[in-house]
Amino acid sequence: MSRGLLSDVLLGAALMSSVGACSEDIGHKFVRPAANQLVFGETTEQQVIDLEGAPTRLQLVSSHKLLQKKPFPIADIDGPESLLNYRFSTNPIGAPQTQEWAAYVFVRHRLCEWNFESDEPALSTDFDLGRARALHRGMSRDDVRALMGEPTGRGVYPCVPQAGSEHWIYDYTRTTIWRTVSRTADILFDSSGRIADLRIYAHDTAS
Fold it and tell me: From the CB of residue 122, how many other CB atoms can be counted at a distance below 10 Å?
């Protein structure tokens, strides 16, 4: 899960997973929208709610309060910021718990970042940490896609510092009663489509 913006939601995940094998579903099932359903700079909070239903959590704050948690600098732009968080967790009897997360970030009520994460086998966003650590500055979007596949999330201006730059997110978290494994690759492309900066995060409570 992207460090910062969804970390407050993850704080309760380990506690929720310890409820036991008979625990009920948490949240409601939502779907990952198709790419053509989300338009940066145009999609509003209400349009996402129309697609996904009511969010698990909604944050609406004044300028720059929310985006201070992001891994890269943001544009210096005034206006309200909002975050829609979605979470669905199921723990059927006799089967492993699975969780799905989604986050949508808005500035001036227009979408500038989204991210989806799942440990459900058919939708898993898991990725090879060794491949992520092979990333380096100067690589193109095509280089990254060939190495890592499609990102789990994207962000554009003003969620990134300059118009034309882009943030790609690769995110995975797996939480059980005994262990939490999480890894994130945050990649910032410049306006020429080359990696300008990157952050790799990995954590395993069993280590």
Answer: 6
Asked if residues 169 and 185 have their Cβ atoms less than 8 Å apart, the reply is yes
Q: 201: which strand partners?
A: 184
Calpha distance 202→205 (Å, rounded)? 10
Could you tell me how many helices (H) and strands (E) the chain has, helices first? 5, 8
Please answer whether residues 19 and 78 qualify as being in contact, where contact means their C-beta atoms are separated by less than 8 angstroms.
no
Residue 48 tokens read as 């996402």
Structure tokens at 98: 């699975």
Residue 15 or residue 159, greater confidence: 159
Nearest Cα residue to 33 out of 93, 92, 104, 98: 104
For residues 79 and 30, what is the distance between their CA atoms, to the nearest angstrom? 29
* pLDDT level of residue 17 (50, 70, 90 thresholds): very low
Q: What's the CA gap between 118 and 121, in Å, rounded?
A: 8
The residue type of 180 is: T
Q: Is the peptide bond before 92 cis (omega within 30 degrees of 0)?
A: no
Q: How many C-beta neighbours within 10 Å does residue 60 have?
A: 14
